[in-house]
Amino acid sequence: MAWLADFFRLVGGLLYWNARKTLYRLRAPRAHCPCQHPSDSGRAWETGCNAVTHWHEPARFRRVCPLLQQNAEGRWRCSVNQADVRPFWGRALAFYGGGLAALYLLATLATFTALRTTGYEVSYPGVAWPPAWSKFTTIKSDFFFAKFKRAFAAQDIGEAILDLSLAYDFNPQNYEAGLLLAQLCQTGQPGLSNGVYARLLLDHPARSEETAQLFFRALLARGDFQAVQTLARDRILAAPVFSPAWLNAFLFANQRTGDLETLGALAREPRTQSLPPDVKTVLQLAADLRAASPVDARQLLINSTSHGATGYTLYFICRQLITRGSPQVALGLISTDDTGLSPRDRTALRLDALAAQGWSTTLDKEIDLLLAAPPTPVVIELLGTHLIRWPDPALLEKICTRLEKSPPPDDEKSYAAYLTLFCAAAAARDEPRLNWTAARIKAILGTRFASLDAVGAFLLGQRKNGHLENYLPALRPLPLEPTYALFCRYSPAFAKPATP
Q: Are the C-beta atoms of residues 301 and 321 closer than 8 Å to each other?
C-alpha cells in the first residue's frame, strides 16, 4: 500500500509544497528554504530534499517538484541552488484539473448509464454538459408519461394517474399530459381536475377555447352549475366569436343556480358592449324575463320579435315561448323567412313546438319526412333529443324500426346518436327499445359496457338512489343538447314541459 500512501502525499503535497515555495520566493532572501536540508550547503547537486523524507519512493515526488534529481552516485539531490528553488503551480493545476476531469467523466458516465438503464431518454452530452441540465425536467416528464401509457394499457388506473400527475408537474407545458390528467380525474377527483383545467387555460391561451369546451362538458356532466356559470361568463367576455354557444351554457346554468345578481351584472358589464348584437339582446332579455310575471314575460317575448329578431335571439325567444306555453306563436316565428336560424335549429324548434301544441298528426308527418332517407347520426340525435323533451313511444318505435332497416355505420358519430336515442327510450319508459339501443351501443364499442345498464335502470326509474349527475359521466360523449334535455327532465330543480 506504499503507492497509495504516496498518492495521498502527492494530492496534498502539490498544494502544500507549492504554497510553501511561493511564500519563500516572496520573502527571499530573508526566508529559509522550505524543502532543502538546512544542514546542507544549499548548492545544486549537494543539497538533499527535506520534502521527500516520508515518501516511500522519492522518485514519485518529482511529480510535485521536477528539481529533485539523482546525482552520479544515485542519491536524490536538489538540482538547483537554494536561491533558485521555485514552485510548479502548472503541475498542480494539471494534476487537479485532470483528476477532476476524470472524476467528472466517471460520474457523468455512471449517471448516464443509470438513467438510461432506468428508462430516461437522455444523451451523454445532455448529462455531461451543465447548460443542458435544464432540459432534464422535460425528460423526466416524458419518462413518467411513458410510464403512464404502460400503466393505463395494463388498466392500473391508480398508478397511471400518479405517473401522469408527475409528468404534468415536471412539465406544465405538456398540454397533452395536463388534459389527460384533467379528464381522468374529473369524476373521482373533481377538485384536482378543475385545478388542472384552470391551469391549462392560463398556460395555453392559444388552445383556451378547446380547453374550455372540454372543461365545460366535464362540469356539466357533474352538475356543477355554479362552475359552469363562471366559466361560461368568462368565455363570453374573452371570446366574443363563440359567445352565442357560451351564452346558451351560461343561461342554462344560471337558471339552475337562480343567481339573478350574476345575470344582471353580466347584462350591465361594460365589456358586453363589444359582444355580438344577438348576445347583448338575449342577455338583457333573459334578465328582464326573470323579473316578469308569466303574462308580462309572454308579451315581452312577443314584443322582442318586432325588432326583427334573427339568429340566436330568435332561437332564444322561440325556445322560451315553447317552454312558457305559447308554442303556436313560436311556430309562426319559425315559419317566417330570413329567420337566420340554421336548418337544424329550425327543425328542432318546430318539432318541439308541434309537440307542445299537441299537433301530433303534423308532427308525425314531419318525422316521416326526416326518415324518408336513411337516417344519419345528425337526424337520429335531433329526433332523440326531441323525444327526451317530449317522450312519445309511438314515434320512438317508428324511428327504431327505420334504423333496423337502414342502420348508420358503426362509428363515433353513430355511437353518440345511439346514446341520445338510448336516453329517449328511457324517457318514454320503453324498456325493450332501451335494451335494443343499449345492444347497438355495446356492439359499436365491442365491450360489455356494464355501467350502461346501471344508467338505464336509473333513467327508467328503477333506481331511486343517486342523481342524474352521478350517471351522466358514463354517457360520454353524449352531445350537448341531449344533456340539457336530460337535466330538464330528470332534475326536479328545473321546470319540465308538459308531456303532450
A: yes
Residue 49: beta bridge partners? Answer: 36
When pLDDT is cut at 50, 70 and 90, the band that residue 214 belongs to is very high
Secondary structure of residue 300 in the 3-state scheme: helix
Segment 165-182 shows an average pLDDT of 92
Task: Give me the half-sphere count of Cα atoms (radius 13 Å) on the Cβ side of residue 323.
Answer: 17
Whole-angstrom Cα distance, residue 449 to residue 439? 10
Average pLDDT over residues 448-469: 86
Q: What confidence category does residue 495 fall into, taking pLDDT thresholds of 50, 70 and 90?
A: very low
Confidence of residue 492 (pLDDT cuts 50, 70, 90): low
Q: Is the pLDDT of residue 362 over 90?
A: yes
Displacement of CA 151 from its chain's centroid (Å): 18
Q: What is the full DSSP assignment across 200-253?
A: HHHH-GGGHHHHHHHHHHHHHHHT-HHHHHHHHHHHHHH-GGGHHHHHHHHHHH
In whole angstroms, give the CA distance from residue 99 to residue 105. 10
d(CA 319, CA 327): 9
In angstroms, the Cα distances linking 336 to 329, 340, 341, 360 are 11, 10, 11, 22
Helix (H) or strand (E) holding 43: none
For the chain, the domains span 2-87, 358-500
* 8, 394, 419, 422, 438 from 445: Cα distances, Å: 72, 28, 12, 15, 11
User: What single letter denotes the amino acid at residue 83?
Assistant: A
Identify the residue whose cell numbers are 543539497: 47
| Grid cell of 437 as nine digits | 339501443
* CA distances, 431 to each of 361, 422, 434, 441, 457 (Å): 25, 10, 5, 15, 9
Q: Give 391-440 pLDDT, tens digit per residue.
A: 999 999 999 999 999 999 988 889 999 999 999 999 999 999 999 999 99
**CA distances for 6 relative to 34, 56, 91, 345, angstroms:** 20, 7, 17, 93
Residue 381 has pLDDT above 50, yes or no: yes
Cell (9 digits) for 225 = 352549475
Phi, psi of 75 (to 5 degrees): -95, 145
Q: Helix-strand-coil percent breakdown of the chain, rounded to 5?
A: 75, 0, 25
pLDDT confidence tier of residue 498, bands split at 50, 70 and 90 = very low
In this structure, what are the phi and psi dihedrals at residue 312, rounded to the nearest 5 degrees? Answer: -65, -35
Mean pLDDT of the chain: 87
Question: Which helix (DSSP H) or strand (DSSP E) does residue 69 occupy?
Answer: strand 68-70
- Tell me if 388 sits within 8 A of 420, measured CB to CB: yes
